[in-house]
Specification:
By secondary structure, the chain is α/β, with parallel strands linked by helices. It has two domains: about 100 residues, STAS domain (Transcription Regulator spoIIAA, 2-Layer Sandwich), CATH 3.30.750; about 240 residues, no CATH class. A hairpin with a 4-residue loop joins β1 and β2. The radius of gyration is 32 Å and the shape is elongated.
């Protein structure tokens, strides 16, 4: 050992026992300064004796940290590979606490991360295919669970957690009004400005009002509102449920006899499906106001003319078509957000990944289903 280290740092006594058993008594400090050298010496001594059982006595350890845990974990893995029993006796309270905190008695949780090898193409394709199949299985299972719980709520409305639903409606809807209004107002303003540059050449500036109204109510209003909600609430749903998953609160709900889907997912889906159509109405209104600002300020249209053209352009079909799409988008956002939350495995980093995946997947589903709606409408 280096001279700068205390004399009782990283020492051990090796005691031979009957029938090939050996005992190792660790002494003094086991920390980052001695872990590598101590592990190398212990492995050499243990390997040279070919033991039938190894017992570690920690009674004389004066300091112990995560590097000490790493030393014991590496020794246990090596002995397990040789099918040699491994046992720890007399750990001081502090040492026992550190071993418990690092889940030393659960090797699958305490094991060090092993870097993934490149492998060959067939193995990687097979591994990817198995992961995709497992994800699809979980997706179908989750979809079925949501469908069954939705039927339960329809047949027995009292099963819906009304208090949580109202709180979620506020977070998803009321709190999103400022950002939805601002973005929609600017979007309507930009649409009116760009379209006026073209229509003004043909003396058709009056049709700017119709263009803004139709585009927003039928297409852009539901889409933009849904994208904003996916970024705000879809990610929040994934993060909330993901945090509950890694803290084992979801498992606790299941143990107590509650359905996690009915308890966590259904209130979020109901809240989103109720407030997103209302947010879409706000989005349409603010976008039309943005178009009005450009029309009145730059195109010399009067407010009454703009409003009259807007009313003539819209019909009940366009109005309800946009609302129907917003309801579907809301269900998709809540569903994919909760799904990503339930898929979380591991630590806090996975919660961030789940939130990101919820936003990306939500936007993809919004665009995909909007395309489906466009095809349905074209063949209506």
């Amino acid at each position: 050992m280096p001279d700068s280290l205390p004399p009782d740092t990283g020492l051990y006594n090796l005691i031979a026992g009957p029938e090939g058993a050996i005992g190792i008594q660790l002494v003094g400090r086991i920390d980052h300064r001695v872990a590598a050298r101590l592990l190398k010496r212990l492995l050499a001594d243990i390997t040279s004796r070919d033991p039938r059982q190894v017992t570690f006595d920690l009674n004389r350890v004066t300091y112990f940290d995560d590097f000490g845990v790493l030393v014991l974990s590496e020794l246990r893995d090596r002995l397990d590979a040789d099918q040699v029993p491994f046992r720890i006796v007399q750990p001081p309270p502090k040492v026992a606490e550190i071993l418990a905190m690092t889940h030393f008695d659960q090797p699958e949780r305490c094991a060090a991360l092993v870097p993934k090898g490149s492998g060959n193409l067939v193995l990687r394709l097979g591994d990817a295919a198995l992961k995709i199949a497992d994800n699809l299985r979980f997706l179908v299972s989750f979809l079925g669970s949501v469908a069954l719980c939705s039927i339960q709520v329809v047949l027995h409305p009292r099963k819906l957690r009304l208090g949580d639903t109202i709180v979620l409606m506020q977070k998803t809807g009321v709190d999103a009004i400022p950002i939805v209004g601002m973005i929609s107002f600017l979007l309507g303003l930009i649409m009116a400005f760009v379209s006026s540059l073209q229509l003004e050449q043909f003396g058709a500036s009056v049709y700017v009002a119709r263009l803004v109204a139709l585009a927003m109510v039928s297409e852009l209003g539901p889409i933009m509102t849904a994208i904003i909600v996916a970024g705000r609430s879809g990610s929040a749903f994934a993060a909330e449920i993901g945090t509950m998953k890694i803290s084992e609160e979801v498992d606790a709900l299941f143990t107590m006899g509650f359905s996690p889907t009915l308890f966590l997912v259904i209130p979020r889906m109901v809240a989103a499906m109720l407030v997103v159509p209302l947010l879409t109405l706000f989005s349409d209104f603010f976008a039309i106001m943005g178009g009005m600002v450009i029309s009145v300020a730059m195109l010399d249209l009067t407010v009454s003319t703009y409003v009259d053209q807007t009313i003539k352009a819209l019909s009940l079909f366009e109005f309800f078509w946009g609302l129907a799409k917003s309801v579907v988008f809301a269900a998709l956002i809540a569903w994919i957000g909760c799904l990503r939350g339930f898929e979380v495995r591991g630590g806090s980093a996975e919660v961030g990944n789940a939130a990101t995946s919820a936003v990306v997947s939500g936007i993809f589903l919004i665009i995909l289903f909007d395309s489906i709606f466009a095809v349905i409408r074209s063949y209506w």
